[in-house]
Amino acid sequence: MNFFCFILIFCGIFLQPLLAAAQIAVSFQAKATVTGPRIVLADIAVIKPAGSEAEAIGQLPIAASPAPGKTKELYTVTVINSLRSRSEVTDVDWQGSQTIVVERKGNALGREQLQAIVADYLKENSAKLPKAEVSFTVVRAPEALPLPAGKLSWKVTPSRPGIMGSNSFSIALFVDGKPAGTCIVRGKLEAVAEVTTATTTLHKGDAITETNIAMQRQDIGSIDNPILNGEEIIGKQVARTVNAGTVLKREHLVLPPVIKDGEMVKIFARKGPLQLSTSGIAKADGRPGEMIPVKNIGSNKMIHGRVDGPGVVAVEF
To answer: According to CATH, what is the number of the domain 192-254?
Structure first.
């Protein structure tokens, strides 16, 4: 046996007990940070020497994590006692701090961020909103909403399908694509715009002129179909009495009649390709598409016809 072989045998004989005696040491840290819902041993302690055995021990469950953004204090003796029955830690050397403060990372949404989420939603859905300066002021919302760490996304639902008139928005929150809760943001939705208002009391049949309307800036959030362009209604008539100061809406207006009561009209009678015409006298005002009574001059009979245009009435037979 040469000297080199002798050295190898000698080292093997005397080092084998030392290697076999290598012990896992678990050193608890005074502070630890976690991201998930559960705390494992590797989250709160340094485990040496590194290797598969240390990794297995590190995955032993310890406790539930605190809420996102919150802390929890653990006592080392309690942790050790909870693991006594595990065969993996029979010969572990426990070391380190006697207490561990565990903090869970997370996202935190405040009132300003929630208002910004609603504002972005309104901007994205501007096509569904009136042409106005639309804004939402938060009245009631969580001061700070803790959420798990991860990529945050959300889905906003207004309290009213048409958005306008909504006094709250429901925000469904997701972290890394998984549901993370829902919060309700309550407030005031405003849509400020120039609207057409009556400057005087308008009676049924009155024509709209430049002198009896004015533009006024106000919140139209609770007004359906307000008139935003006064010029487009000049010449139209009011369908019913409207008080001074009223915001004019589509339902308030009708087109002026194209046929007047007592006016001579042309009556066209149609049946398939056959068309006859005669003269008559309108017995009521008529607007395009309306049915009005007409006296046929030739037969002296009263008939009903559809107003097709100025001075023209159509009859089907």
So the answer is: 3.90.1210.10
**177-195, pLDDT tens digit by residue?**
999 999 999 999 998 999 9
pTM of the model: 0.57
Amino acid found at 298: G
Residue type, 305: G
Architecture of domain 264-316: Roll (2.30)
Q: What is the mean pLDDT of the chain?
A: 89
Is pLDDT of 132 > 60?
yes
Q: Is the pLDDT of residue 100 over 50?
A: yes
Residue 9 clears pLDDT 60, i.e. is over it? no
Bridge partners for 114 per DSSP:
none
- For tokens 């209604």, the residue is 233
CATH architecture of 108-189: Roll (3.10)
Residue entry with tokens 């020497």 = 49
Taking alpha carbons only, the member of 132, 186, 125, 192 closest to residue 161 is 125
Torsion, Cα 275 278 281 287, to 10 degrees, reads 30
Nearest to 142 by CA among 172, 121, 180, 112: 112
Handedness of CA 174, 71, 101, 92 (dihedral sign): negative
**Architecture of the domain delimited by 21-104:** Sandwich (2.60)
Beta-bridge partner residues of 108: 146
Which residues, other chains included, contact 174 with Cβ-Cβ below 8 Å and sequence gap of 6+? 152, 153, 154, 155, 180
Give the per-residue pLDDT at 13: 47
